[in-house]
Amino acid sequence: MKKKHHFLILFLLCFVAYSAHSQQATETRLGTLPELSLHRGHTVHILSPEPIQYVDIASHHVSGDLPLENVLRIKLHEDTTQTEHLDFELGTITIVGDNFVAQYRLTAPLWMNDTGIPAMLEIKPEHTRPLEISEIGLSRSQMKNLALGLLTKNAHRPVRSTRDYGVGIALNSISTLGDYIFLDVSFTNTSNLSYNVDELRFFH
């Protein structure tokens, strides 16, 4: 039985450049941030368009974790003794993705109708600022979209191919974007033995 495996391999050539001129910092004030209200007994899930790399929560009244790489779960601590006063203002929460940073103003209203309590927040583009770290490159979601787009293109003739003992490999196309190199590689197997690709090595 003929088996064919199709791979798109992404190589990132790391050329890290440090700028000698720092950018002028801009100030963000708490009152200008979008508000996110928290209530005891309720959890809020924050959905990020990119994998979350870093989270900072200003208040010790709030805890959070990452059940998924792009989902942040936060909630107010349960105060069973009710002896600690909870301020309305809980400070900021900062969320950093591959290519953006987002901040929200956390509050704890004394009362809110249950139907108005937030359950999920999706980070919107207007709530983010781009991270201009030197040559941070593409995010994983951007690389995935580019890779899938390249896979949909049909190569008329492979750039290079070889075949031996019923196993073949073909380099269908090479694409570049900045410091990235995309290789479209196909594997075929007409032998009676199954195999899995363990690793690929490139020599120059």
Describe what you observe in this structure.
With 204 residues, this protein is mainly β. The protein folds into two domains: 3-15 and 139-189, no CATH class; 30-130, Immunoglobulin-like, CATH 2.60.40. 6% of the residues lie in helices and 41% in strands. The chain is built from one helix and 13 strands. The protein has one helix at residues 140-151; strands at residues 3-12, 35-37, 43-47, 54-57, 62-68, 71-76, 89-96, 100-107, 120-122, 128-130, 160-164, 167-177, 180-189. The strands form three sheets. Strands 2, 4, 7, 8 and 10 form a five-stranded mixed beta sheet that branches. A four-stranded antiparallel beta sheet has the order 1-13-12-11, covered by helices on one side. β5 (62-68) and β6 (71-76) form a beta hairpin. The chain is elongated, with a radius of gyration of 25 Å. Keywords: Signal. Pfam families: DUF4138. This is Bacteroides conjugative transposon TraN protein.
Based on CA atoms alone, the radius of gyration comes out at: 25 Å
Please tally the β strands and state the result: 13
Low-confidence stretches: 10-25
Helix/strand-derived class? Answer: mainly beta
Number of helices: 1
Q: What general form does the structure show? A: elongated
Level-1 CATH class name of the largest domain: Mainly Beta
Overall CATH architecture of the largest domain:
Sandwich
Whole-number count of domains? 2
InterPro entries: Conjug_transposon_TraN
Keywords: Signal
Organism: Sphingobacterium spiritivorum (Flavobacterium spiritivorum)
Protein name: Bacteroides conjugative transposon TraN protein
